[in-house]
Structures are given as structure tokens and as C-alpha cells.
Amino acid sequence: EFALQDLSSRVGQPVTAADLETFTWQETIYPNTALGCPQPGEVYAEVQTRGFQFVLTYQGQVYDYRVSSDGSMVVLCQGAEQPTATAPADGAPAPEPTVAQPTAVPPTVPPATVPPVPATPTAAPDLGVSGMCADGLLPLLTVGQQARIAPGVPSIVRAQPALTAEQVAEIPAGGSFAVVEGPVCGDDGLTWWQIQSDDVMGWIAQGEGGVYYVEPIPQALPAAGALTPLAADNVEQLVELSRIQGNVAAALAWTPDGAALAVASTDPVNTGVWLYDVAALATDFPRLLETEIVPSALAFSPDGLLLAIGGADGTIELWDWSEETVITSIAAHQVAVRTLSFNPDSTLLASVDENLTIALWGVAAGAEG
Description:
Layout: H1 2-11, E1 22-30, E2 49-58, E3 61-68, E4 74-77, E5 98-99, E6 103-104, E7 146-149, E8 155-158, E9 167-171, E10 176-185, E11 191-197, E12 200-205, E13 207-208, E14 211-212, E15 214-216, E16 252-254, E17 260-264, E18 272-277, E19 287-290, E20 295-300, E21 306-311, E22 315-320, E23 325-331, E24 337-342, E25 348-353, E26 358-362
Parallel strand pairs: 3-5
Antiparallel strand pairs: 1-2, 2-3, 3-4, 4-6, 7-10, 7-15, 8-9, 10-11, 11-12, 13-14, 16-17, 17-18, 18-19, 20-21, 21-22, 22-23, 24-25, 25-26
């Protein structure tokens, strides 16, 4: 939304996602606040900064935007890999995309420091699926779930799902609550949830302008033996614990005990594999196993000691993932590795490439040598 707002101001007319010829996006942890696009004469803090890259093609021109996760920084950049314009349906040649010149533009209202006071919509809201506003944010919460106010500013609890409704209470940033009902699309165009916090019952807005004011509290997974088998008569009891925001690659793998998840990074800046500690999703930042290959397949050994990473160039790397060290690297295939699998005692690794060639590799005891 921030990128589209800035693009609208540049071209002098409203631009929505439906007006774009093509667009791509990816989530990135940048090494500093430059968001991968330093501007001449600017000084940037050398701290890891979560942000997004949006490459938008509008009327034959390509715009490369970098936006911080809190929306406080919006930069029109240059130098991203640009999408190829497709030919129109009538067969006429597509215009050759050009790249907009870089300009740093802060958003008009920094959402992390200003309380949520949305503008009045010019038309009645369009109701979407399950009561969510069709032009609003995707719902992050589910009924019966524990959630909290996102960091930054408190949220106002109202008697009804509307900005004009009576204010019942105010929950501080980080304050927790239970989700009672929702989502509901209000006349103000916002998505609302009915919540219970201690003795307070009321409605809070989910967010606005691409910024969420609420977020789920990640829950630890129950022991496998305590899980009830899924069947037709209990499927309605399923509850979403949390939702991942960002790109999820096809290559991912769980440790045998389910305590950690490995996800291949789709980010060209941070090439490698992200490791998530399931029990500490709310507090710990995921670790990145940095590798020069582009991961296309992942597999943990049954003993939980090793992580095999197959690359798009046919390379296989064997990692001691807890120590974040590479044990060995093999030029295994001529094309991308698509599947990896260990045998039950972790002494043999099978790899399959995109040409369906299968290779078997011996793994030394204790992953040494």
C-alpha cells in the first residue's frame, strides 16, 4: 500500500494493484537501514532491518520500491532484476519497460508512531470473504485464539465495530486478549475483531494501510502423542495458531522432533536457509545458514544432527546445522537438486535432480569426514 500510494502521487492518479501490468515482491532482512538501496549523501544505521522489495510495472515503466516493515521508510530504487513485459492480447508488441529514477520518499503518516485514525472512505466498503473488507488486510487472527496488540501504539476497544462507536477501553502495545468473534467489515472500511481482555469486551480494528495493529501470539506445538487424528467429525475444531508473512519457498524441512523448521531463502541478498525455533517464535529471530548456493531441496537426517541442502546448480552441502558449519560440499548433479532423503540410520543420502537422475551418497558415522 505504501508503494502504491507513492506511485500514485508520482503519476498524478490513483494506482491500485489491478492497474499494474506485473509485480513481484519479496521479504528481506537488510544489513542496514538503507534497505539495499543507499542514497548519495545519506548515512544509515548498521542494524538488521526487515523490509520488502516491490517491483511494479505500470504503463510500461518499472518501479523498484523498498519499504521497511513498519512503513517508516519508502524508497524508490534502481537496479533490481526487472520483470519482462508481456505482449497485449491483440498481438501488438509490449512497450519496453524503463526504470524510474531513485528517490527517497518517506510516507505521509508513519504508522508506527501515529494512532490508527483512518480516512473516511469515499464509497461503501466492499464485503469480502468471511466478513473481511475486500480491499483490506488479510486476517491474521482466528476465533478462540490468543493474540496481542502489535508493538508501537495502543489500540482502542470500541462498543461496536466502527470508529464512531463508544470507546470502551484502551489496550497498550503488547497487551494480550482472546479473539471472540470476527472478522467483520465495518462501514469505515476496516476489518474488526471482537475481543476479550480481562473484564473488557469490545471490538478492535485489525489494521490499515498495510500495517497490522494486532498479531497472533505463537503457541508451542503439542506433543505428537497428544494429538487427535484428524477426521470429518472434528475438522471444524482446527484453529490457526499463526500465519507466516512473506515468501515461503518450496524447499523446507522439519527436524525429526518437530522442534525446528528449515526454510530455503528466496532472497538474493540473504542466500541460504532460515532456521526457526518453534518453541521461541515469539522471542527469537530465525538464524540464517549462509551459503552461496541457491537452495532447491532440504532434508534433515533422522538422527537430527545433519541438514542436507541441495542447490539449483546441482551442488549438495552437508551441514552440522546446530553449529552452523559446513561438513562437506559435493558437485553432485549437473542440474538443480529437487529431492533429498536420508535412510533411517542416517548413513546414506539419496538425491534426485530435475532430470530424474538418482544418486546415493555415503555419510560417515558422526558426520565426520
